[in-house]
């Protein structure tokens, strides 16, 4: 990850300058270049597609927007841009910014967030775990298809890891899956797959 600007930005400045640029997010006023690669985007797209199919087949009143920012209410200069986000359509009427910008402020609108790990793995495994739990987002998936995370997060030796974080009493309980393991999700009960199925080959 690179820090592309030493200047501290406000949320409003970030939206004006980078709101439409999916390469960037804002954390505590610092502009973060998420450096998406082709393989990263391929994995994120595959996951989004599988989720969408399950939403459609189950007739859930949810959507998977192409582009969306999360503005945590307690963080004035932060705008998080998950790789995949699932929203509850019924809750969108309560979102103060949604009609003008694809920005979510209320955790109750969000059913699931997915981060595909790249060089900014520290944010995915630490900062965003805290932010998403504080927002009461029920499910957070961390897809580390290249095994980039620190040893304290994915173990030794490093290997591709899919971490399912389920919110229990405001704290994420984490379950890790490796290649060959079958991944289940209570939020999409008919969805089951393996990390192998979404790996970029």
TrEMBL record:
It comes from the Bacteria. The keyword RNA-binding does not apply. Keywords: Endonuclease, Hydrolase, Nuclease. Gene3D superfamilies: tt1808, chain A (3.90.1570.10). Residues 12-192 form the Putative restriction endonuclease domain. GO terms for molecular function: endonuclease activity. InterPro entries: Nuclease_put_TT1808, Restrct_endonuc-II-like, Uma2. The keyword Signal does not apply. This is Uma2 family endonuclease.
């Amino acid at each position: 990850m690179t820090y592309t600007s030493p200047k501290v930005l406000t949320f409003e400045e970030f939206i004006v300058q980078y709101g439409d640029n999916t390469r960037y997010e804002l954390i505590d006023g610092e502009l973060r270049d998420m450096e998406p690669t082709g393989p990263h985007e391929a994995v994120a797209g595959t996951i989004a597609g599988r989720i969408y199919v399950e939403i459609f087949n189950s007739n859930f009143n949810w959507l998977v927007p192409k582009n969306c920012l999360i503005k945590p209410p307690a963080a004035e200069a932060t705008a998080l841009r998950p790789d995949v986000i699932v929203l509850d359509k019924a809750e969108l009427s309560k979102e103060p910014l949604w009609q003008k910008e694809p920005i979510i402020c209320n955790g109750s609108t969000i059913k699931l967030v997915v981060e595909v790990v790249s060089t900014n793995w520290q944010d995915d495994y630490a900062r965003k775990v805290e932010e998403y739990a504080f927002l009461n987002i029920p499910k957070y998936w961390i897809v580390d298809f290249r095994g980039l995370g620190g040893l304290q997060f994915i173990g030794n030796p490093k290997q591709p890891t899919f971490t399912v974080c389920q919110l229990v009493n405001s704290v994420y309980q984490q379950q890790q899956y490796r290649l060959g393991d079958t991944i289940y999700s209570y939020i999409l009960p008919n969805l089951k797959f393996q990390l192998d199925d979404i790996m970029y080959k």
